Amino acid sequence: MSQPPRPAPGRSVTVRVPAKVNVQLSVGPRRPDGFHDLANVFLAVGIHDRVTATTAPDGQGPGISCSGPGSEHVPLDGRNLAVRAAELLAAHHGFVPDVHLHIDKDIPVAGGMAGGSADAAGALLACDTLWGTRTPRADLLELCARLGSDVPFSLVGGAALGEGRGERLTELPVGGTFHWVFAPADGGLGTPEVYRECDRLRGAAAVPEPAADPALLAALRAGDTAGLAAALANDLQPAALSLRPDLAATLAAGLAAGAPAGLVSGSGPTCAFLAPDAEAAAGIAATLVANGVSPRARATAGPVPGATTIESHA
Ligand code: C5P
């Protein structure tokens, strides 16, 4: 394999990538390939990881380091989705990925907020900029889909309906800002484990094909918090609660603190609460911290843009 038209050693590009919450996650029957067809309405929210790609000394394949809360649980080898993203992009262009990736985490690790997917999308964009490969958007999205079902959305951001296994995106119009509180939990939940538990709980029951809820799409379009609160739905929530019964108390605490609605974020264990405005969100987060329910609870808002280059010394 050849080398990319490589920038000098030490050159770097930093990309910031948002977390997501699923405002609707409808899970269809298990497919023969083990995945599930979804109607997955993603909203990108203002909690970000930063991925920095730096040209490594000659011939050294993708290196990886990680800092921030929970970084001790992030694999620092070929299992890391960001490493796989760099390898995939380099192979796509036919060269060796001589890059070092640093991930500065703020998205909860294994928290149901697409942190690993965000890092993969961030690494793709950072390497593409560092290497000057100018990969067309459609090709980047296809590489994202090969890395994981949620990775295309991390690149795109905003709000989108994900169909298929979640990777086939249709961007959605959003008519306002939604205020959220996220309550991370200790320990993570493995996504495959949660889907397995969902299948187990369903047993032989007939499962309808998933479809986006028109009332939820209308609430997003109108920027209507009360409408969105009424329509929030996550088919993985019973499975997450079955594996982590303690989350029921977190959900109850958020509602008791004044949130109009709450749900488990994706496969969990982070819990997400809608709030009427920024001030209310800050108050709910402060209550969850003060009463010890979630010491890392925080307020934020969405939608926000997807993966964005914030620094380039390439
Ligand atoms: O696509 P991704 O690698 O993120 O998926 C992780 C796991 O989540 C899959 O291996 C599968 O067990 C489960 N999954 C699923 N159906 C989907 C998406 C993910 O069953 N649509």
- The secondary-structure element order is EEEHEHHHEEEHHHEHHEEHEE
Query: Which CATH first-tier class of the largest domain would you pick?
Result: Alpha Beta
Instruction: Tell me the domain tally.
Output: 2
Shape field:
globular
Instruction: Please name the CATH architecture of the largest domain.
Output: 2-Layer Sandwich
Overall SS class: alpha+beta
Total beta strand runs = 12
Main pleated sheet: 8 strands, mixed
Distance between the termini: 22 Å
User: Which small-molecule ligands are present, each listed once?
Assistant: cytidine-5'-monophosphate
Low-confidence stretches: none
Percentage beta strand? 25-35%
Mean pLDDT: 95
Radius of gyration: 19 Å
**CATH-assigned fold name of the largest domain:** Ribosomal Protein S5, domain 2
Question: How many helical stretches?
Answer: 10
* Proportion of helical residues: 25-40%
Describe this structure in words.
The chain has 314 residues and is an alpha+beta fold. The chain has two domains: 12-172, Ribosomal Protein S5, domain 2; 178-302, GHMP kinase, C-terminal domain (Alpha-Beta Plaits), CATH 3.30.70.890. Helix content is 33%, strand content 27%. Strands 1, 2, 3, 4, 5, 6, 8 and 12 form an eight-stranded mixed β-sheet that branches. A four-stranded antiparallel β-sheet has the order 9-10-7-11, with helices on both faces. A hairpin with a 5-residue loop joins β1 (12-30) and β2. α1 packs parallel to α2 (115-131), α5 (191-202) packs across α8 (237-243) and α6 (214-222) runs antiparallel to α7 (225-231). The longest helix is centred in the middle third of the chain and has 17 residues, at 115-131. The protein is globular and about 55 Å long. The mean pLDDT is 95. Cytidine-5'-monophosphate (C5P) binds at residues 34-36, 38, 148-150, 165-166, 191-192, 195.
